[in-house]
Design goal:
This protein has about 280 residues and is of the alpha/beta class. The chain folds into two domains: about 120 residues, no CATH class; about 140 residues, Flavodoxin domain (Rossmann fold, 3-Layer(aba) Sandwich). Helices cover about 30% and strands about 25% of the residues. The protein contains seven helices and eleven strands. The strands form three sheets. The chain has a five-stranded parallel β-sheet, sandwiched between helices.
């Protein structure tokens, strides 16, 4: 029999989907709404939130860091446990945030909350580029920490583009080693983001509107989620460029033609240089 835990007041932001992309684009909007509406106005209200995903029992460090940036003290946070039945006298909830198509107004609300918190501190020493004096910066997102959709072409692509565009700093970056604040700071200073469809691209939330170009390597399936980074980028006034490849969603390594990528990315870089 499940254990029952009672509270005077609960603020719930639980939703069906989880993982980094869903946390950034769905959970953070809900958190931004409830902080000002409920948590600050009701001193007894406790926040019920999912902090560990995919069967893990350990809270994700980046979840806790985002909550800290929102100013929510640890003693008011309840880590959701699916084996517990939660009861309360007063329950606060927001309307559900649609998966994959969050309203642009909520996305801008998230930027407003978190950019000021992340950019108020000094730039992390982890945010390094091949040449800090370069005028333009491109980042290739490394998915070595993932089981699927990794790339074996980033090094070759980096070498080709660096020879062709010596005025650019072109870097391969593994995001899974970085804190949430470091990822926010990093995506604020890059001109072109290149990544295979995956959760790391959720960080385009922090890019500069009308400046940054998001280049997504799009696999052939599944079709129902192939629009989501287009939606995120265009909602935030970012330039978006898809490059379609004939690899599957579940392929361990995405097959890409380096020369084709060089041609497509050269067009993006030329447009960025002369904007």
């Amino acid at each position: 029999m499940n254990r029952v835990v009672h509270y005077n007041a609960l603020v719930s932001v639980l939703q069906l989907h989880n993982g980094y992309y869903h946390w950034v684009t769905e959970r953070l909007p809900a958190l931004c709404l409830v902080v000002s509406l409920f948590l600050k106005s009701d001193s007894e209200a406790m926040l019920l939130v999912d902090l560990s995903f995919h069967g893990s029992t350990v809270a994700n460090a980046w979840c806790l860091e985002y909550l800290e940036m929102l100013g929510i003290p640890p003693e008011r946070i309840i880590k959701y446990d699916p084996t517990v039945v939660y009861s309360c006298d007063i329950l606060y909830v927001t309307s559900p945030i649609p998966a994959y198509s969050t309203h642009r107004g909520l996305l801008h609300l998230v930027r407003q909350y978190f950019l000021s918190a992340a950019l108020a501190s000094s730039l992390s020493p982890l945010i390094k580029f091949n040449n800090n004096n370069q005028q333009h910066r491109m980042m290739l997102i490394d998915r070595t920490g993932s089981k699927v959709r990794r790339s074996s072409t980033w090094v070759g692509l980096q070498q080709h583009l660096s020879r062709q565009y010596p005025s650019w700093s072109i870097d391969i970056v593994a995001l899974h080693h970085m804190t949430a604040k470091e990822q926010i700071q990093l995506f604020q200073v890059v001109d072109v983001i290149v990544g295979v469809h995956g959760a790391g691209l959720a960080n385009v939330m922090w890019c500069r509107p009308k400046v940054t170009t998001v280049v997504e390597i799009v696999t052939v399936n599944p079709p129902q989620v192939r629009h989501l980074f287009w939606h995120l980028a265009t909602s935030l006034d970012l330039k978006y460029c898809p490059i379609h490849v004939m690899s599957s969603w579940n392929d361990p390594v995405v097959k890409m033609d380096v020369h084709h990528l060089v041609r497509r990315l050269s067009q993006v870089m030329e447009a960025d240089m002369y904007r």
